[in-house]
Write a structure and sequence with these properties.
Blueprint (H helix, E strand, L loop, with lengths): L10 E6 L8 E6 L4 E6 L7 E8 L6 E8 L6 H6 L17 E6 L1
Antiparallel strand pairs: 1-4, 2-3, 3-6, 4-5
Length: about 100
């Protein structure tokens, strides 16, 4: 994605990378402010990636959200069909961390 519409577009979309990732890094560039946001994470924990964009279409919000994920898509039935629906057993733990970086361009 290289262009986002204004909030008057009243749109929202979510995009997924179809296959498992090979790198656990993503980012968003804010050229008007000269800022880059980077998110790093373990692809063994989050092998899939979604990206949510709301251009006024969800509750009037204007935002975006990178979404590392354990499966894809946002439907349990579809994720199961994709073979991308991990299940935690009772008492099983799922520990993870993220590294967030804000930097000037």
């Amino acid at each position: 994605m290289n262009r986002v519409f204004g909030s008057d577009a009243k749109k929202c979309e979510k995009y997924y990378v179809k296959n498992k990732l090979s790198v656990g890094t993503c980012g968003v560039v804010y050229p008007a402010d000269g800022v880059v946001f980077t998110l790093e994470y373990d692809i063994n924990k989050f092998p899939y990636f979604g990206f949510w964009v709301s251009e006024g279409g969800f509750r009037g919000d204007y935002n975006c959200a990178p979404e590392p994920s354990t499966g894809y898509y946002d439907s349990i039935d579809v994720a199961a069909k994709n073979g991308a629906l991990p299940v935690l057993e009772p008492g099983e733990r799922f520990e993870f961390g993220f590294t967030l970086t804000l930097a000037g361009m």
